[in-house]
Predict the 3D structure of the following.
Amino acid sequence: MAAKFTSESRRRLALVIGIGDYENVRKLQNPQNDAKALSSLLQCIRFTTADQHLDQTRNQLQHVLVDFEDSIQSNDIVLFYFAGHGIQWEDQNYLLPKDFPDMDAADEKKKAEFLKKNAINAQDILNTLSDRKPYVVIFLLDCCRQYFLRNTDLNRGDLNENKYQSVGLTAMHKAGSLVAFACAPGALVDDKPEEKNSLFMKHLLKHLPTPNEDIVNTLQYVINGVMTDSDSKQIPFISVQLRHNNIYMCEQTD
C-alpha cells in the first residue's frame, strides 16, 4: 500500500530568477548558472512548473511575476528563488533587475522613491504570493552580495569603499511561509566568479532531491554545508512561519 504524505497530490510551482548581466552595477557570474541548475533540478523532481528567467529588466520581471501569481491555486506548494543583487533600504529588501540605474545618481533624500521606481520590493512579492492562499510559500533569496560597484568604476580601478557600501538584507516574515537567505541578515556573500555555482546553491542542489525530507530539515543541511565550506564565514538564515509539517520538495511513495 502506498504511503500517504501531507503534500501528496499537491501541485508544486516554481519561479526561478537569475540576474547577473547588469547594465549599471557590478556584473555577477553565478546567478545565471544557479537559476539554470535549480530549474533543471526542480523539473527532475517533478515540479509542475519550474519557470526560469534570466537577466530580466524591471518591466519584464513585473510581467513574469504577475503571470506566476495568476497561475497559483489554493493548496499549491509555491517556490520562489532569486539570485542577483539585492539591497536593504529603510528595513525593506529590494531585488535589482538587469536595468537598475546607478543609485549614486539619486538624491539621498529620495532613494526610497528611487528604489520603489527602479527595483522590486521582495516583501511585496512574498505578500502577493501568500495572498493567493497556497499551501505554503518557500522563498529563497541568494542575493546578499556587494552591489554598489559600477562597471565603469571597475574598469578604471576607482573603488571607493566608503562611497559604495551594502549592509546586506533584512529579515522577512509572512504567515504560512518559509524565507531562506543565503547569509544572515546584515551580512554579505562573497560572490566567487571562479565557481560555477554559489555556495548556497551548491548545497541546495545536493539536498533538495532527497526524497520525503521536510524542507526545514533540508535547509538545515544546507546551512550546515555552507558553514562548513566557508569556515562559518557565511551562515544562511531561515525564517519559518509554516502552518504545516512535512513539506516535501521531492516526494516519493512506497
